[in-house]
Amino acid sequence: MSKIFVDACLRKPTPYTPVWMMRQAGRYLPEYMEVRKKAGDFLSLCHNPELACEVTIQPLDIVGVDAAILFSDILVIPNEMGMKLEFVKGEGPVFEKPVKTEADVDALLGGEEAADRLTYVYETIKLLKQKLPEDRALIGFTGAPWTLATYMIEGQGTKTYNVCKKMMYSNPELLHKILRKVTDVVKFYMVKQIEAGADVVQIFDSWASAIEPSKYDEFSWKYMVEIAEYIKEKYPETPIIMFPKGVASFIERGLVYGNFDVFGVDWGTPMALAKEKLGDKYVLQGNMEPCRLYSKEKTTQCVEALQNIMQGEGHIFNLGHGILPDVPVENAIHFVKECHRVSAK
């Protein structure tokens, strides 16, 4: 049975434009909060295949999206490379010992050895393949090397990125060494997700906009392109989505290239610009401003505007970043229904 979402990624005809939402398995769903409570904490939920499988499927049943995205976290990668990770209430993810020196990088596990430790992720995917309806796709994912490196170097989330950007300008060789090591783990991790059953994979560069345009290719995009190329060599039929957030200026400068299928457009990038510059080469995903979900009327306006721009061709509906925790569930359902309504052929 064909999967509408996979067909859309490959620009094949579909009866309507499919839709899913980043962070669709999350805190806005009361059902998710119940499972998380049962798990004990966020990281324990990521490590429990049965419960991770349950929360991955919830948005399909409750909200009606066309694809499930694996419930996990991007930071399980550095965690399994040997960095001790904690989620601190009010602070978010924190690494006990950030990477500061070449010796710190050398001490981390790399390549397939680190990727092999993520067994709970692969077990979750295998479980999902048994439980998901045949017509719904499963999206695997990873953080981009730059986004992962920012957490590893800063030790936690940051608004200024001054520690890793200091390294970028004063010791670029060390930053490249970190990015190289992370990239090599991510390559194996993505392939193992596909081998476990992921239909599509997405590479998130959440902190793309922290890099000035003239440095973006060197410190982020080229590593993402390398990962995509590695996946395509092994699994040419598996669609790849690239999502670098905050990159309107990079698109205008022609900095987007590579062997992948779908480009995720963030909400700060005009969809018409993305279509003009990239629409012939890549299917475009996005890009409703997530806060529009607080208003059904503003949601409908945006969905109709996106449909007018994209005309149901080479497009996947999504938000321009993740759904926020206090969005009413009925508004998320409204978004999905409106996407299906306006694009029905």
Automatic annotation (TrEMBL):
Pfam assignment, any one: URO-D
Enzyme Commission number(s): 4.1.1.37
Recorded GO CC terms: cytosol
Site (Transition state stabilizer): 73
HAMAP family linked: URO_D (MF_00218)
Function: Catalyzes the decarboxylation of four acetate groups of uroporphyrinogen-III to yield coproporphyrinogen-III.
Subunit text: Homodimer.
Similarity annotation: Belongs to the uroporphyrinogen decarboxylase family.
Name of the protein: Uroporphyrinogen decarboxylase
Lineage of the species this protein comes from: Bacteria, Pseudomonadati, Campylobacterota, Epsilonproteobacteria, Campylobacterales
Gene field: hemE
